[in-house]
Amino acid sequence: MRREIHMFFLPFLAHGHLIPVVDMVKMFASRGVKPTIVTTPVNALLFSNTIERSKESGIHIGVELLNFPAVDVGLPEGCENADLTPTSEDGNWEMITQFSRQHSCFNSPLKSCYKNVNQIVWWLIRSSIGLLMLQTNSGSPGDIKLTRNQVPDYVKQDAETNSTKLLKAIKEAELKSYGVVVNSFYELEATYADYYRNVLGKKSWHVGPVSLCSGKNIDKVERGNKSAIDEQECLEWLESKEPNSVLYICFGSRTNFTSSQLKEIAMALEASELQFIWVVRKQKNNEEEDDWLPEGFEKRMEGKGLIIRGWAPQVLILDHEAVGGFVTHCGWNSTLEGVCAGVPMVTWPAFAEQFYNEKLLTQVLNIGVAVGAQKWVRLMGEFVERESIEKAVKEMMKGDKAEEMRNKAKALAEAAKKAVEKGGSSYSDLDALIEEISLRSH
Ligand code: UDP
């Protein structure tokens, strides 16, 4: 009989990391691995309901809490997540980063959780493998071009900053790791996966898309945070619409557009005459209408457009047949969730590794229309004018090109579902990974 495998997961403290790690943990647990997520109290609350529900269905996930000294390091009480930091200053980001780095070492308070473990193998969890090669300059097949302006500051800067230090630490961890677990599926980026394994000779397991493990609506609604809209209200709104007629717009958990950019988006949406669900992170103020909305916008859009202020049940929305296109900032999770939903995308990268993901959608998979963002700007993105937005969303939603992209996207969505089913490539890779861990822990 196989010995019990106990795995510890230490997700980076940001929604975009916690969400896929929790999904991945559920996948490992469903194959008999005993998982423990190590995180801080505020972050644990974000997925406590998910863990309870898993328990009811016989899947046990342990949580080990570490206190985050927010106040001691100059952050407000409870500020334990990169998305909660009050300003975009590098210093705040550094606090969160440093904490994640410190606790991934053995000379940390985590020692107590590891005490019964007889052998430890480090695994690194990454997103797209093509992205990984671009980021680490390890060479890659194909002819993908990025301008200098689209490359992250921390990649091109010579001077050492907090972000360059983080990237360096990631690269070093990569070298020390036994292998790389990838939230992607082989068929999505086969050329890159083969190149990574065969030409660069590195070990990797494609086990995703991990978002496909949220089978029930309630898991989709509560994925990552409490939704700002009632599930029924959202579904009823979508059900009143024709298939492929609604545009979904969301820029993830970190991008914060200025009021003038939001106004520009509103004007483009109105001019496009399309139906839409638009997720805006800005909360409503006390005045009658938000200052970033054109006068009378919401009244004119009644029945046609829905604005969600705060956290949206993204996967629930994307998976609805009424949704026919996705305007995305190209975060890796959103990119993959769009692929799984089989929708074409308008790519609007702002910062981080988002420009790389845009290239995958527009130049490799051919299911994306670029909005035209040319410059990497941390947390905010470059200002894009309404004409460009209107043109891109229309091109994605209507006409022959839209149809062609939608067919390609649907085929990829089918391939993604097959990959995670029994006998599929990701299912088999996860089996192989667990088998290899089991062999190495004897
Ligand atoms: N997300 C969501 N509702 C929101 C905003 C984001 O469910 O209102 C989820 C989204 O489905 C994805 C994650 O948050 O799983 C965002 O990760 P991504 O890598 O796309 O971008 P980041 O937030 O890291 O920039």
Automatic annotation (TrEMBL):
CDD domains: GT1_Gtf-like (cd03784). InterPro entries: UDP_glucos_trans, UDP_glycos_trans_CS. Keywords: Glycosyltransferase, Signal, Transferase. It is an enzyme of class 2 (transferase). Residues 1-24 form the signal peptide. Its EC number is 2.4.1.-. PANTHER family: GLYCOSYLTRANSFERASE, SCOPOLETIN GLUCOSYLTRANSFERASE-LIKE. Belongs to the UDP-glycosyltransferase family. This is Glycosyltransferase.
